[in-house]
Amino acid sequence: MIFGIRGNIFKNELASIVQRLVKGLDKEGIDYICEIQLANLVKRKSGHTIKKDHTAAEKELVKVCDFMVSIGGDGTFLATAKLVGSRNLPIIGVNLGKLGFLAETATKDAFGFIKKIIQGKYIIDERTVLEAVSISGNSASRSLFGVNEIVINQNEIVKTIEISVFFNNQLVNSYHADGMIISTPTGSTGYSLSAGGPIVFPKTEVFILSPISPHTLTARPVILPDNGIFKVKINSRVPVCMVADGNDILKLKAPAMIEIRKAPYKIKIAKSLESNYFKVLTAKLLWGEDKRKKSRY
Hints:
It is a single chain. The chain is of the alpha+beta class and 297 residues long. The chain folds into two domains: 2-122 and 272-291, Probable inorganic polyphosphate/atp-NAD kinase, domain 1 (Rossmann fold); 129-264, Sandwich (Tumour Suppressor Smad4), CATH 2.60.200.30. It is 22% helix and 38% strand. The chain has helices at residues 14-28, 36-46, 58-64, 74-84, 110-118, 191-194, 277-285, and strands at 2-7, 31-35, 55-56, 67-72, 91-95, 105-106, 123-136, 139-140, 144-146, 149-154, 161-167, 170-177, 179-183, 206-212, 222-225, 230-234, 240-244, 248-252, 256-271. Helix 4 (74-84) links the parallel strand 4 and strand 5. Helix 1 crosses helix 2 (36-46). The relative contact order is 0.15.
């Protein structure tokens, strides 16, 4: 069993955390491969040298590992998911960010959790992925894949755009808005939540359609089954972007048509046996917290 290690190299504490982790893995004889840029950072910051046969370039990392260890915030996790793609590798999210919905494992628990994985004491949580492609006539551009969401918004010009959304070829609604978010249940606590969307349990087989700042008082988020196909028509003649998880961007010329559906693969997350989604909500979003119990004044 080989563990691939990558992380957000812009986090100041990353080098020391990886140093402690690899020392523990070396001591226990656990196989790992560290992303080479991260290995260089560890050597530069801490003086600890990771052996060359324990390092690999990022794209090679996912070809030889059985698990991926993603050290950072949820953004780092999403970038790791993009790297993993359809390879079916479980991801261990180690939290160095602010929230950590996807990166649940605390840094102090990372080594211990890896030992539990070797012992078979873990669960795999599968998450739906969105696939989006822009369509122009009979030709199609490259696909974008999003674990959290696909966002369509205006590019550079601060102006509302006219968007018509179809589900299984039926018109859902037409909007004048800054853009549109089509989110998975995983992404319901991300950008969609900020745009007024609902919190949706990750195992629910739905997508959430949320307009961004619609120029109307009646446009509301809509929940639709995830076995259908969205077609999003941008009617305004202004440049637009299609963005997947905030880290993959495709610029489009409007008018344009975008097709969005469930991807043919899922992302796997390795979690502890004690993992509880509602406890995460409580910890990260203060879910259900009643401040009246803390003070009467």
